[in-house]
Amino acid sequence: MKIPPIYTPNNCKFAYQLRWSLTLFWRSTPISDNWLSALRPVTKADGVRILRHRFGQNDCSLFLVSTRPDVSPSTIPWSVKGRLQNLLSNQTPHAFQRNYDLQSIGSTRGEKAEEYVAAQLKQHPPENDRMHGLFDDLQIVNPNVDLSKPRFTAHGRYACNLHLVFVHDGRWSETRKEVWVAVRDMIRKASATKGQRRERMFCATKELAEHPFLLMPKALQ
Q: What is the pTM of this model?
């Protein structure tokens, strides 16, 4: 008799916290943000939730927003700036300058995430001596990558990093060399194709952890 799972996608609500700081630059700062109540529901339909807003110095608006995991970072300025410009189109046809700034926000500093990935090989050693050499070779370390530096597109400045951990279904061990080599090569190829920057990647028999750069100018153009 097959025992049904206790937890399924239908009876679980997943918690996540993807928060971003978005700065938009006005041509002339409005007197008030009375448009905020109308802006929130239309951006929420795009998967972008506006948590806070305040006016800053130098004719700018500072937004704290959160997104669903399926929403790409490039959608955030498109949604907030585009929807707000549409709301203001009658009274201010060209309200914004073309540039903007987007930064990811998290509770863990980048150095801590890097230290976590770097320490995983000792935390999760391979099951036998044969696998030690393989997993030593599979680690990706790019000392020339500095994730603290922002990247630029034609109109945007991005400082958006993402720490990823993938765990095998059922936490089964994968010990086949050809599988792990294919995974590593695929990640390297994807990084080169999409312009991603990865500082570190750790592979073990049961999981894979990365500390990569998230946004790719090529994908945004």
A: 0.67
